[in-house]
């Protein structure tokens, strides 16, 4: 047989197999994605589960305050072990979470609270950072997010808006598709969002990556029908006092601006 | 002159807060003569300005000459105390600041910072103003808002709570609640 012809035919054969393989795998993945999105929108367990490992994503300032408001009314004995993630430059949020966790034994439950872990994730981009270095820091942030998610593999994810939540939720979604871990992702849009979703909320809504998305104003419910309207919930004991550390941090920022 | 307790009781303090932001246009607007006179005419005695990261420094005044007493500072660890002792709050449009003031049931004028990019803050301020929980203004319209405001038209804000969300999540995950 002529070598050139046999090479050509086996090349064609190989190409066909490769293409069929790629199409086949892509189709399987698409089917799996559709199944994941469909199944995620329905209540998860028919029988009460035991405890569920939970990842709580904290953002700066108002985001953390609203998340603490939500955690304060949830039965913490169901959601453990608990992991908190905040941006690496956001010390205040983790401190507030620590305060909440320390306060828990004083509530009705008598169990130990030693199962919470605190972590930090690198922010993709600091305010004012140049876009060139942003690519590098985003890659670092994504790798760090991936590493944390592999370690934690939470069954429940609670987030409410900061940019830090998008990479984590995307990774969680990929884990679902690949069968690594099924996470129920709950996104609560901030009370400050009245007519438009935040960018994080919009991404998770459009990409159908959140199992359930909650909004606090009726205008958002009309605009985004798949969202759940839960009314306004600034809890009566919401407090926004500054600790002395916060004052110090804020004063330091002034110092930098005035004397740089 | 009297003891400090007496003077606190007869004071009506206007507290201006910009949080951790830089909001020079608000501080400037408050520091104008017309706004100070409008506040004085409405019966306020003291103006305290928390100016945050702003670079514009207001002018202090003791108010001995029969006008508004003016003082300022950058940050404090006890903003809540200032809010509690105020008769009127003029605040930037951060949601934390807004709800903190509403929780304390203080009349508040929320001023939107138009220099901010992506000003979604104005949505919240405008919505709450429409529901008569507060007054909403821009630095340029502060004077008109103060002169024309009727505190009696304000409706108290009833805070909700996050229980509906928690209940939804519990049901979704299959927890049965006794």
UniProtKB/TrEMBL annotation, chain A:
It comes from the Eukaryota. The keyword Transmembrane applies. The chain crosses the membrane at residues 12-35, 55-74, 131-150, 170-188. Pfam families: Alg14 (PF08660). It is a single-pass membrane protein. It is found in: Endoplasmic reticulum membrane. The keyword Membrane applies. Keywords: Endoplasmic reticulum, Membrane, Transmembrane, Transmembrane helix. Its main location: endoplasmic reticulum. PANTHER family: GLYCOSYL TRANSFERASE-RELATED, UDP-N-ACETYLGLUCOSAMINE TRANSFERASE SUBUNIT ALG14 HOMOLOG. Belongs to the ALG14 family. This is UDP-N-acetylglucosamine transferase subunit ALG14.
Automatic annotation (TrEMBL), chain B:
Residues 13-163 form the Glycosyl transferase family 28 C-terminal domain. It comes from the Eukaryota. It holds the Pfam family Glyco_tran_28_C. InterPro entries: Glyco_trans_28_C, UDP-GlcNAc_transferase. SUPFAM superfamilies: UDP-Glycosyltransferase/glycogen phosphorylase. This is Glycosyl transferase family 28 C-terminal domain-containing protein. It comes from Rehmannia glutinosa (Chinese foxglove).
């Amino acid at each position: 047989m002529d070598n050139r012809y046999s090479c050509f035919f086996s090349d064609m054969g190989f190409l066909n197999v490769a293409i069929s393989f790629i199409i086949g795998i892509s189709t399987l993945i698409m089917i799996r994605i559709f199944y994941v999105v469909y199944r995620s929108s329905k209540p998860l367990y028919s029988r009460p589960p035991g405890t569920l490992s939970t990842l709580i994503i904290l953002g700066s300032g108002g985001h953390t305050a609203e998340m603490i408001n939500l955690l304060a009314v949830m039965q913490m004995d169901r959601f453990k072990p608990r992991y908190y993630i905040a941006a690496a430059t956001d010390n205040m949020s983790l401190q507030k979470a620590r305060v909440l966790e320390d306060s828990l034994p004083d509530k009705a439950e008598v169990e130990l609270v030693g199962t919470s872990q605190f972590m930090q994730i690198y922010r993709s981009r600091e305010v004012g950072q140049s876009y060139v270095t942003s690519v590098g820091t985003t890659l670092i942030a994504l790798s760090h997010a991936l590493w944390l998610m592999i370690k934690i593999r939470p069954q429940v994810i609670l987030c409410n808006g900061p940019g830090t939540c998008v990479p984590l939720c995307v990774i969680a979604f990929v884990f679902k598709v690949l069968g690594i871990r099924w996470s129920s992702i709950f996104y609560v849009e901030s009370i400050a969002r009245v007519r438009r979703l935040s960018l994080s909320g919009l991404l998770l809504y459009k990409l159908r990556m959140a199992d359930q998305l909650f909004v606090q104003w009726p205008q958002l419910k009309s605009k985004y029908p798949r969202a759940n309207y839960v009314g306004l919930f600034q809890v009566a004991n919401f407090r926004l006092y500054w600790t002395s550390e916060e004052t110090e941090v804020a004063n330091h920022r002034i110092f930098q601006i005035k004397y740089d | 002159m009297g003891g400090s307790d007496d003077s606190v009781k007869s004071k009506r303090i206007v507290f201006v807060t910009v949080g951790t932001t830089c909001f020079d246009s608000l501080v400037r607007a408050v520091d104008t003569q017309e706004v100070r006179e409008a506040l004085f005419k409405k019966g306020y005695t003291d103006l305290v300005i928390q100016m945050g990261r702003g670079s514009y420094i207001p002018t202090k005044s003791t108010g001995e000459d029969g006008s508004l007493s003016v003082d300022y500072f950058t940050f404090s660890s006890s903003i809540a105390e200032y809010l509690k002792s105020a008769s009127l709050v003029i605040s930037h449009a951060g949601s934390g600041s807004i709800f903190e003031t509403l929780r304390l049931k203080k009349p508040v004028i929320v001023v939107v910072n138009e220099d901010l990019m992506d000003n979604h803050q104005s949505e919240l301020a405008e919505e709450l103003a429409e529901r008569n929980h507060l007054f909403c203004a821009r630095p340029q319209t502060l004077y008109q808002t103060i002169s024309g405001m009727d505190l009696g038209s304000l409706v108290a804000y009833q805070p909700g709570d996050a229980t509906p969300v928690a209940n939804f999540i519990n049901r979704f995950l299959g927890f049965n609640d006794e």
